[in-house]
Amino acid sequence: MCKETTCSFTGHRIISNEHKFQLKQQLKETVFSLIQRGFTTFLSGGALGFDQLAAEAVLCCKKTFPEIRLVMVLPCKNQDKFWSRKQQNAYRQILSGADTVIYTADTYHSGCMQQRNRYLVDASGCLLAYLTHDSGGTKNTVRYAEKTGVPVFFMETPGPRQLSFF
């Protein structure tokens, strides 16, 4: 995996239904733009919400660009243990389409989510973030990326927004 051509995703788990459809479309367009700029590997943490929407956008783009890779970087093997059956089925569908699955820990432990988030940043040439409030794991991941010099690009809703790339 080449860091310069790898993009990771971070974002909130809870996304309002009114924004979800538009965000899905923006993600597909953004992943398409990243592919056109030479990104070939995309890393998702697999969490509910933005992580899964981003992974689904990559899988959609894979139909046109089969050479791109989706790597699921998961905090532990039982991440979906307390999710609903519907959420587990959607998660397993994404995992089945991934090119690689990496677990940063075997089982859940305090700090395993942060460990996963740091892995995502450390392995990437850029971070695509959906950050709508100033707290939590997404904010901490963005701070870590900025601290380590990894460029961060932000998805916003509602309304279209042009991302500026380096």
Structure notes:
- It is a single chain.
- The protein is an alpha/beta fold and 166 residues long.
- It has a single domain, classed as Rossmann fold, CATH 3.40.50.
- 42% of the residues lie in helices and 17% in strands.
- The chain has a 6-stranded parallel beta sheet, with helices on both faces.
- β5, α5 and β6 form a beta-alpha-beta unit.
- α4 packs parallel to α5.
- The two termini are 20 Å apart.
- The model has no long low-confidence stretch (mean pLDDT 93).
Q: Any idea how many domains?
A: 1
Residues in helices, as a percent range: 40-55%
**What's the end-to-end separation, in Å?**
20 Å
Biggest β-sheet: strands ordered side by side in the sheet: 4-3-2-1-5-6
| Strand percentage | 15-25%
Q: What CATH architecture would you give?
A: 3-Layer(aba) Sandwich
Oligomeric status of the shown chains?
single chain
Structural class: alpha/beta
What is the 3D form? globular
CATH class designation: Alpha Beta
Low-pLDDT windows of residues: none
Number of H/I helices: 5
* Strand runs, count: 6
CATH-assigned fold name = Rossmann fold
Compute the average pLDDT: 93
Let me know the largest β-sheet: 6 strands, parallel
Rounded radius of gyration (Å): 15 Å
- The H/E string reads EHEHEHEHEHE
Quick overview of this protein structure:
This protein has five helices and six strands, in the order E-H-E-H-E-H-E-H-E-H-E. It is α/β, with parallel strands linked by helices and 166 residues long.
List keywords for this structure.
about 170 residues; alpha/beta; Rossmann fold; six-stranded parallel beta sheet; 5 helices
